[in-house]
Amino acid sequence: MDYFDVVVSLKGIIATRNAADYAVIEKRAHPADIAGALAQHPARDQSLVLGMASPAARAEVFGYLDQDQQVRIAQHLDRRRLAELFLNMSSDERADLYNRLSDDQRDTIMPALAQVEREDIRQLAAYPEKTVGSVMTSDYATLSPGLTAAEAIDELRRVAPDTETIYQAYVIDKGRRLIGVISLRELILADPTARIGDLMKPSPVWISASAPREEAVHLIAKYDLLAVPVINGGNMLVGIVTYDDAMDVEQAETDTDFRKVGAVSELGRGLKEASITLLYRKRVFWLVLLVFGNLFSGAGIAYFEDTILAYVALVFFLPLLVDSGGNAGSQSATLMVRALATGDVVLKDWASMLGRELIVAGLLGATMALAVSGLGLWRGGPEIALVVALSMQIVVIVGSLIGMSLPFVLSRLKMDPATASAPLITSIADATGVVIYFAIATTVLGLPEVGS
Amino acid sequence: MDYFDVVVSLKGIIATRNAADYAVIEKRAHPADIAGALAQHPARDQSLVLGMASPAARAEVFGYLDQDQQVRIAQHLDRRRLAELFLNMSSDERADLYNRLSDDQRDTIMPALAQVEREDIRQLAAYPEKTVGSVMTSDYATLSPGLTAAEAIDELRRVAPDTETIYQAYVIDKGRRLIGVISLRELILADPTARIGDLMKPSPVWISASAPREEAVHLIAKYDLLAVPVINGGNMLVGIVTYDDAMDVEQAETDTDFRKVGAVSELGRGLKEASITLLYRKRVFWLVLLVFGNLFSGAGIAYFEDTILAYVALVFFLPLLVDSGGNAGSQSATLMVRALATGDVVLKDWASMLGRELIVAGLLGATMALAVSGLGLWRGGPEIALVVALSMQIVVIVGSLIGMSLPFVLSRLKMDPATASAPLITSIADATGVVIYFAIATTVLGLPEVGS
């Protein structure tokens, strides 16, 4: 049953309130498709449809809805229903939902849950946003090293309904410290009487619960893991991050980086769904800020007004020169933001990257100076050509260094380097470009400065 | 054994040529770490170390090296060794390597392989780059619907050494057509005597081998799959794309999009590893192209020289106005490039997106016009204020529309929308901004145009 069929069937089910038809969808369609189709209906109809689902399937479809919708539906559910939903949701999604409920809703739901569930929710919900702890799940399978392979498979079969994956099991000692991992594949290939302690891979890859969540994504991608185990301050195993949650994190991080590079703040949803007022709000801040940033360029120009009046041909090259600095700078910034985000470059590389960038920018500047000097000759004669070529060389080097350094500086200040957006770099490079250009012009062409 | 230990041990092993020490690393370190440490040594030492490895482990480490290094090492291996390596590599990595070997090397290796391997390599290597076929593997597990659950588990155990995953098995009919999927989890939870045909999930998610590879990533992320099955033109199952390969594709696509948005062509490797000449080559093309693109701005300015000489205060606002158009445009372009890349927006949405963008840009322009009119009043009086505010309003709308439309146009022309880079948008928006600004100025301030 493909997505289109689900959309059509769901419309019918909402119209007729026929629960038997829903059972057919539930059996034949993917929960992600049911959630996708459901997302287009109002919250009242959504809770109606979810009421028809079996408890486990309901939690699964609910988990695929976006968080705003989850909260809205939760408001339509009575205490018993909400408690049942909480019980069936995966532990990480449940903790995220809990964090978005009102205090009233939390007070309603918590007493309806067993002690162990309450503890689990409180613990997972306590990790700060964007940490590994905030995306991990506590539904993982553990084994003790003394079990045989056959016993371990039985154990995994027993816990399967309550774990996100049984394909990786984590071997722990009596103090819940992680001592090894073993995959179900290894287990079913092993001699059934062999001990887990001998079969397991010791000293596995792990991550701390307080690390940034992107690091879990890096580890999973680098080592091709199904999940990475998470350790707390006391070296105890407290959760796992699965590959599918890692893919969602990666997607979210990439979206964020892109928006920041484009100087748009987080939309929180798809471009198509975003309302006009949301788009306006998310874009206006940077644009207006950059207007005022640009005043420095203007001030530079005002300062050199006499030079401009004497050589109006200089204005001809103004957009070209300031843009070239900005373009070279946004190239460096883009490369650097991405390299910092993927961990390819780290903070301490700054000095060595600076040296390389200086050489690359020098070569780029020389090439562009050559290209532009011909134009200068044609437009304004040899003196203008000299001014333009010299300015181009310096403007490109300065722009590149700004573009390269700003992401490092932001990173150092514990800010997201992606905030070094192309528009910001352009504006900064513009202001310096204007000053460099007219200062060189005034020097070479020998004009008096304003006020002298 | 962590990465740092591996680096140190490997240096020792290369110095002493002690194969027993390598056996320790092989057992205790992750192949990705061994490959990472190995990458820092010359190809001759790399083949020396790989020669110490057991055949299966060797292929695994080799698979984690980047493709340039794989090709260089392959040149150091004799025919027997290379054939053995080919036999042990996963089918997708093997086909990629095959595509990068010289004709001579291909002719050497192919006769040393069995017929079935040769066929597999030829088939996989034939898919065009960036299609699903080019990233899929043919090492997957199939089951026939008549097997019982217990028989199916035995079958998976049997094929485990040669398949990338046994956690998902694909149920096929006699014509190799995909009729269902079943997970190992479901199999071990099922009644051992139940039939696969009854247990399997019918009509599973699938993808065509000729589809763009990003679509496989979308499906895997959307439906939380371990792997997506791949179908050829005749509806036959021909391979699977696993989640770990999907994560690599996602990473590569994101890097490409970022570089394009920053107007840098594909580096093919990390920023830190890239040589200075490579960086120069990859960046110079766009920068020089944009120099010539910027001539249009210059020409616009030359045309309105008289206006500038009469009102030199106009130059004060020049960088501000042209930048604002470029900034608004690169915001729209960034949002649109990303939305097209993730499939959030498709080509046919152009008209409706245009309408929304017009409204958003109108509001943004009005806000910025208001901000800048105060400056105009202060710098040049009410007439200049009017000119600047009016220009700002129009420049922002035009810039946004260019930024929003260019990715669509490129997409329509079957070019990558990410080529609508911020620098390109800025340059186009600049040229139009200059003309708009001075045309409005000339009209409002009532100056004669050049040549009249």
From TrEMBL, chains A, B:
<keyword id="KW-1133">Transmembrane helix</keyword>
<protein>
    <recommendedName>
        <fullName>Magnesium transporter MgtE</fullName>
    </recommendedName>
</protein>
<dbReference type="InterPro" id="IPR006668">
    <property type="entry name" value="Mg_transptr_MgtE_intracell_dom"/>
</dbReference>
<dbReference type="Pfam" id="PF01769">
    <property type="entry name" value="MgtE"/>
</dbReference>
<keyword id="KW-0460">Magnesium</keyword>
<feature type="transmembrane region" description="Helical">
    <location>
        <begin position="384"/>
        <end position="410"/>
    </location>
</feature>
<comment type="subunit">
    <text>Homodimer.</text>
</comment>
<comment type="function">
    <text>Acts as a magnesium transporter.</text>
</comment>
<feature type="domain" description="CBS">
    <location>
        <begin position="200"/>
        <end position="256"/>
    </location>
</feature>
<keyword id="KW-0472">Membrane</keyword>
<keyword id="KW-1003">Cell membrane</keyword>
<feature type="transmembrane region" description="Helical">
    <location>
        <begin position="358"/>
        <end position="378"/>
    </location>
</feature>
<feature type="transmembrane region" description="Helical">
    <location>
        <begin position="308"/>
        <end position="328"/>
    </location>
</feature>
<dbReference type="InterPro" id="IPR036739">
    <property type="entry name" value="SLC41_membr_dom_sf"/>
</dbReference>
<dbReference type="InterPro" id="IPR000644">
    <property type="entry name" value="CBS_dom"/>
</dbReference>
<dbReference type="InterPro" id="IPR046342">
    <property type="entry name" value="CBS_dom_sf"/>
</dbReference>
<keyword id="KW-0129">CBS domain</keyword>
<dbReference type="InterPro" id="IPR006669">
    <property type="entry name" value="MgtE_transporter"/>
</dbReference>
<dbReference type="InterPro" id="IPR006667">
    <property type="entry name" value="SLC41_membr_dom"/>
</dbReference>
<keyword id="KW-0813">Transport</keyword>
<keyword id="KW-0479">Metal-binding</keyword>
<feature type="transmembrane region" description="Helical">
    <location>
        <begin position="422"/>
        <end position="447"/>
    </location>
</feature>
<dbReference type="InterPro" id="IPR038076">
    <property type="entry name" value="MgtE_N_sf"/>
</dbReference>
<feature type="transmembrane region" description="Helical">
    <location>
        <begin position="284"/>
        <end position="302"/>
    </location>
</feature>
<comment type="similarity">
    <text>Belongs to the SLC41A transporter family.</text>
</comment>
<dbReference type="Pfam" id="PF00571">
    <property type="entry name" value="CBS"/>
</dbReference>
<dbReference type="Pfam" id="PF03448">
    <property type="entry name" value="MgtE_N"/>
</dbReference>
<keyword id="KW-0812">Transmembrane</keyword>
<feature type="domain" description="CBS">
    <location>
        <begin position="136"/>
        <end position="199"/>
    </location>
</feature>
